[in-house]
Amino acid sequence: MKHQPPNSIDNHLTVNRRHFFKSSAAGIGAMALSQLLDNSASANTGLHFTPTAKRVIYLFQSGGPAQHDLFDYKPLLNKMHGQDLPPEVRGEQRLTGMSAHQTAFPLAGSKFKFAQHGNSGAWLSELLPHHREIVDDVCFIRSMHTEAINHDPAITMFQTGSQIAGRPSLGAWLSYGLGSENQNLPSFIVLASAGQGGQPLYARLWGSGFLDSKYQGVRFRAGKDPVLYLSNPDGVCHSRRRAQLDKLNELNRHQYEKELDPEIESRIAQYEMAFRMQTSVPEVTDLSNEPESTFKLYGEEAKKPGTFAANCLLARRLAERDVRFIQLYHQGWDQHSNLPKSIVGQAKETDQASAALVKDLKQRGLLEDTLVIWGGEFGRTAYSQGVLTADNYGRDHHPRCFTTWMAGGGVKPGITYGDTDEFGYNIVANGVHVHDFNATILSLMGIDHERLTYKYQGRRFRLTDVHGNVVDDILA
Predict the structure, then answer these.
(1) Tens digits of per-residue pLDDT, 10-22?
(2) Residue 20 lies in a domain
(3) Beta-carbon count within 10 A of 94 CB
């Protein structure tokens, strides 16, 4: 798993190699091509130990959901509403440029009511009525933290393990380490809610970085053509496309034998995958065969392609077909002002479908080996950014502590892990860093995060950089 072709080859050695490959009866190009086109190629060749999860569905809430208004109940904030955050609580911690020059940091109690639910007694805001039905299947992590304080580096950190762009994404690492269990669909698929405003999403968030391009995520879009340029143009039939690809593969094979560029192998494999996807993608994205009970579970929005609800339903269909990593993005959680009004809409768009996905997977027997993740790139501050009024407030970015949740795939159900202080500003027990979180995800998938590496520019890189510990306490 750690082996890969060298980044450069001496010209003299290249010439000798070319002569060797041309004189070889089999030829490495032909062998590589036959392996790439062999639909029976086994997956899971990179396992370090027995996995509890076979696949991941990651519901990423871009913008930073306000934990104080959703998951982390802090009655002291309501009692001290409008009073200044004690300086000793904030200490010397870094602030964003948006609130660093405030002369006061008035505490903002949540406008929304909280109550405990389920046998686990998990605290939830009234904004999440459907989450009440899954709390005993979920592990809430209240003590997530990161160093990144602004959106782009923070989301890049979660998705790639580094604040600096250019590293492989989590889905790409899993595709590289474990391969695919479905030869007719990509092992890594991305779904983003359509028509959402908010912080921008970049293709590099699901990119392969310095790994081979075949490991990058493939984005499915709403509408008639979920994957761009996948359909045949008018006048080109299936058999003609097959004949064209056969000729193109011959040219690519000839080029590979001359240049030994591994990206040529990837190009061949991607053309073949695209050809198979011409049949598999229309089938998996067609929701017309879903019963009305499914849309009752996920909500009427699930009938509208590109909504978060429709994407959650599609994620379940992809999981049924053993897609390895399914990444959903939902934007709009960046609520620096007018939070009480705007968060209502965000919660309504995501609450029912998120809970429905967990319930749907569970009733189909898929939750036990499917890891579902819900969370954003950081949390929000206990104090109000800008002016605080009786019924309005905003919250700035807060990387020091925030909440995310996991369900299925070998995670302990019905627990809340970690704790924050009475202001919800600092962690007081069982902190979970981004690297710890990613190490735990890899562990559930059967991978030792310290052993999944790739040598690039003289250094062995990994998703967790040189950090990270598996959070054993949340494993079932």
Answers:
(1) 333 343 444 444 4
(2) no
(3) 9
